[in-house]
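ingest -> validate -> predict -> emit
validate: passed (alphabet ok, no gaps, 245 aa)
predict: started
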Amino acid sequence: MAKKDVVDKFKSLKRVGESKAELLYESGFDSFDKLKKASIEDLTKVKGINENIAIDIKDQLMKIKKSTQVKKHPKPEEKVEKKTETIKEEKEEIKTKEKKEKDQEIDEKEDVYRVKKKPVISIEQKEKLSIRKQIKKRTPEFLREEWFRYKKITRTWRRPDGITSKMRINLKYRPNKVRVGFRGPKEVRGLHPSGFKEVAIQNVHDLKDIDPKTQAVRIGSTVGTKKRIDIEKKAEELNIRILNI
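emit:
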């Protein structure tokens, strides 16, 4: 049969226009019989035909097949029921396949959670870190003197001075000042909450002097994405933890 005749036959089906009919012909369905034999999965491979359209086409083809078969050789109802069951099975198979593909894509996209690297520290240091955490919880927020009074005064802490400063001489209801009593244990002073010594770096070469057991790295804010990617790759090779990923 000529291409025009086949395309016109395909166009007689609902939800199949001229462009879709031509695409079906180009993808190997050069006759109406081949289209009838095709499964839903085969039809979905054709560009512009999704699962719903494929099911509609298949249903229409089945109806056409039934009407021709009734005219020639009428068949019992059992065989018709079997065909409907096969279509249902095909639909279910496609759905299960799609679910599996989606699950695989999600697994590929989502990074599997890895436990963050921990430092090699003594038991005493671990205890001191937990003590420091408790101290931090009960430590008040230190605010600058009279920050609430004027807009130009920021909240950031500054030591109060001046003869008339009531905060300096600790009068009753004045806010807390920074004092020695609020400080954490000396052994873990300056350490990151994880227990690592924090080291600022700007490029890949700075990683050479890092001890991965006790030191962790923080990439500078001015470092570009290209350099950052190189640093991350090198840090993975050397088993160095990056704190700002």
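Residues 196-245 form one domain.
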